[in-house]
Design goal:
By secondary structure, this protein is mainly alpha-helical. It is built from 18 helices and no strands. The longest helix has 47 residues.
């Protein structure tokens, strides 16, 4: 540590004379106060000069974060200046030299230098006493008055006037900066909407877990992070389009046919009282309830009358005629034949298997619907960002000529990349 201190502060020395040190303490306090004040003023001048340059640059190119950058750099400069001021603060030796310059003719510095020696002579003792007597008689307040540095003060005043002038003069980039800020506010708003969509998927996944829904949740979480980091319209549009494409890949093909088959079977079953419960469950779309309703029907097939079995079989046959899925059509026909054949055990087995198939189809339909709603939300988010970029400051954008040059940036539903 001593070697490091010697490198950082070349004039730093270790003295053992406590009485001389205490006598020099008021001088050190005043010297350090002046030292810290000058360091602060110079650091403030540097910070103001840097801020002035950044603000002038903001007149040439639109820069929405210029004030934030100025504050950050100002804080960094002040912290660095404070650290350097503490490292280079005046010590005992400098105080002794300053005191000697007030007419003590190197008495104090000589006494400090001799105090480092292990043994002293009568001459050294007399010299120390003489130095201490002159030091104690010195008027510290008159010899070391606290003065404001004039040069630093003039520089600060000049820089302050220039900063005020720069802030008063109309900035030609103001329109584009306002547009950028409007886009950022809209991105933050759409980030909240994405959060709502993700939370909705999480709640539904807790009730009915799905691997595809979990992948959609992860994609939305990644999108939230990207939107939080996005500062420009192009970045947000690209992230939204990428996530929308991910969700699109998670949606299984043939969803329209699945929905049509489920709706057709629901309508057919609700035509008769015997199948109304199953039809209602199909219409509600709860996969677990769909399977349960068919299982209950399978358990009570043996107690059904021949007329009720025939009515249920007719409903299944009607749905089978319009079914698009080949496997579902086959299962509907098999269940209808079992009901008409009179074998309660076979009919119950076919109905239970049909309920399991319909439950899987209902789950697929529900997941696809959830992912489709998430896609629509992302499309709406892109439209909102594009609208924020083109409205409100349209006139200023035209004058600045700095709007997004890609034709897709302002087109609802496009990716803007």
């Amino acid at each position: 540590m001593k070697k490091l201190k010697a490198k950082l502060i070349p004039d730093s020395r270790i003295f053992t004379d406590r009485q001389l040190q205490e006598a020099l303490r008021p001088v050190i306090t005043r010297l350090r106060g002046e030292h810290y004040l000058i360091a602060l003023l110079r650091a403030a001048a540097v910070a103001m000069a840097v801020s002035l340059l950044l603000l002038i640059f903001a007149f040439l190119r639109p820069w929405a974060d210029v004030l934030t950058c100025c504050l950050i750099l100002t804080g960094a400069i002040l912290l660095l200046a404070a650290a350097l001021a503490v490292i280079s603060r005046p010590g005992l030796w400098e105080a002794a030299c300053q005191v000697d310059a007030k007419g003590l003719k190197e008495r104090v510095s000589t006494a400090l230098e001799l105090s480092c020696r292990s043994s002293g002579t009568e001459l050294q003792t007399r010299q120390r006493e003489d130095a201490l007597r002159h030091l104690q008689a010195l008027d510290i307040e008159a010899g070391f008055p606290l003065r404001l540095p004039r040069r630093e003060g003039k520089v600060l005043l000049t820089l302050a006037l220039l900063l005020v002038l720069v802030n008063i003069i109309p900035n030609p980039q103001r329109g584009e900066v306002e547009r950028q800020m409007a886009i950022r506010r809209e991105i933050a708003q759409q980030q909240k909407q994405v959060e709502k969509v993700k939370n909705d998927l999480v709640k539904k996944n807790e009730k009915a877990p799905s691997v595809r829904r979990e992948e959609g949740i992860k994609a939305l979480e990644d999108l939230q992070r990207k939107l939080h980091e996005a500062k420009k319209q192009e970045q947000a549009m690209k992230s939204l389009a990428s996530t929308e494409e991910q969700l699109k890949k998670l949606v299984l093909d043939g969803q329209e046919d699945v929905n049509s088959d489920l709706q057709g079977l629901s309508r057919a079953l609700k035509q008769e009282e015997i199948g109304r419960e199953m039809g209602d469950k199909l219409a509600a779309g709860d996969s677990r309830e769909i399977k349960k309703s068919f299982d209950r029907m399978a358990e009570k097939v043996s107690a059904l009358s021949t007329d009720d079995r025939q009515k249920l079989a007719a409903s299944l046959n009607q749905a089978a005629t319009s079914a698009n899925d080949g496997d579902l059509k086959s299962q509907l026909n098999q269940a209808a034949r079992s009901l008409n054949s009179g074998s309660a055990q076979a009919a119950g087995s076919k109905l239970s298997a049909l309920g399991a198939t319909l439950g899987r189809m209902g789950e697929q339909s529900a997941v696809n619907a959830d992912l489709a709603r998430a896609q629509m939300a992302l499309q709406s988010a892109r439209t909102g960002i594009a609208t924020a970029a083109s409205s409100g400051t349209g006139a200023n954008m035209a004058s600045s000529g700095a709007s997004c040059q890609h034709p897709g940036c302002n087109t609802p539903g496009s990716n803007g990349t």
